[in-house]
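We store chain and fold; example below:
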Amino acid sequence: MIRPLILMGALITAPITHADNWFEETTPLNQAHQHLLKGSLSEMYSVMVEVLQRNQNQALKEHINDLLVQSFDADCGKSLHNDPLPAWLRNVSIKRTSIQSPGRESYRLFVDVTSAEPLKDVSLERWVSSNIAADTAFGEINDKKTRNANQASDYRKTYNLNSRLPMGLYHLKVETKDSQSYSTWVIIEEYKAKQIVRWSAKDQWSIEKNELLNKFCPLPKLSVRVYNYQEEQYKEIWGRTYQANYPTKLDKLDIPPDRYVLSVALDSQRWQGPIMIEQSQIITKTYDVSADEGQLTEE
């Protein structure tokens, strides 16, 4: 259910040029507000896409961002887009990641697709016709055995970003090798984390809770991974994922003495119709395993 008091707060912060006659003019942004009040979320979303296609004013974008975030209180974005994926396209997810290591923060974007048809490419462009990164990679990410068992293949497009992906309108396109295609508009919100993971000790972390979680969205997932540097790349040697009862420390592991990387990730999810939109915060540390203690100790 949309909370009208919070919505009114959003209306008050609208650009002052529209404040006096907000509900007297028939404008696209006015229509978006009305659709939100009525719970017509797919109609609201279509209007917001139209508004962003025509106007990239920063104040307007911030206002649409507030409306979009408010709409998640209804069903976590499931009703924003009613058109289903084509039969050959099984799943689509867009995942933003921030990777925080001592003295450095980097950003990546992953577009993961499961398709029953071989894919030629997957692309996500910022409107208007702007590449979001020069450093990209695309390919199949599962082996032949898994592909044959599922009668579908998993693909990933990776974007190595120079900065955090900004709020705005994006165009997603999936192309098969036999010239079939799927495309749609995606609005990426300005992400505000409800929970943040931080280091609290050598091999311990804490989860800082900033807001109540949306009961319509999946619970955040906590992933703990240990990597070793082998053959000029980091390979996972141990990992666990938790959706409740999150641990706050790494237990003793039966691994040989060496230098490792400990990674802790907190992932949150929402939908845009059939598409999953994810945000992952990852913190990493370098550790040594002591031969005497047989456990992880900070370098």
Summary: Residues 26 and 242 are 48 Å apart (CA to CA). The two ends are 50 Å apart (CA to CA). Residues 195-298 form one domain.
